[in-house]
Amino acid sequence: MELKEAAAGTLESGDILVQIAPAESKGLQIDLQSSVAYQFGRQIKQLVKETLEGLDIHDANVKVTDKGALDCTIRARVTAAAVRATGKDVWA
Predict the structure, then answer these.
(1) At CA 75, angle to CA 8 and CA 80, rounded to 5?
(2) In this structure, are residues 64 and 16 in contact, taking their beta carbons and an 8 Å threshold?
(3) I want to staple 6 with a disulfide (CB 3.0 to 4.6 A). Which of 23, 46, 48, 84 is the partner?
(4) Distance between CA 45 and CA 24 in Å, rounded?
(5) Tens of pLDDT, residues 25-48
(6) DSSP three-state, residue 56
């Protein structure tokens, strides 16, 4: 699946900014910036990975800037960024 650069979300409190770009190597490279990374970083990365793999995206560079988003918000932002990056509408 071909990817182009795309993003979803904001840097507002309680939100998350997800930026997806084509992979330079195999696999998902997830770069997480979060003030709660110590407590929830592993969970946030796992949620991003599971959401992307569920959308059949296995190779991408993903930059995630978290501002305290809940799991449902993380899933929604990752899905929106993936739809924009692939052009594949998952809601149709």
Answers:
(1) 35
(2) yes
(3) 84
(4) 19
(5) 999 999 999 999 999 999 999 999
(6) coil
Strands 16-22, 6-8: pairing is: antiparallel
Which of 3.30.230.10, 3.90.1150.200, 3.30.160.150, 2.40.50.140 would CATH assign to domain 6-86?
Answer: 3.30.230.10
Q: Are 58 and 27 in contact (CB under 8 A)?
A: yes
pLDDT per residue over 5-25, tens digit each?
Answer: 999 999 999 999 999 999 989
Q: Among residues 17, 19, 25, which one has the least CA distance to residue 4?
A: 19
Full DSSP string of 65-85? EESS--HHHHHHHHHHHHHHH
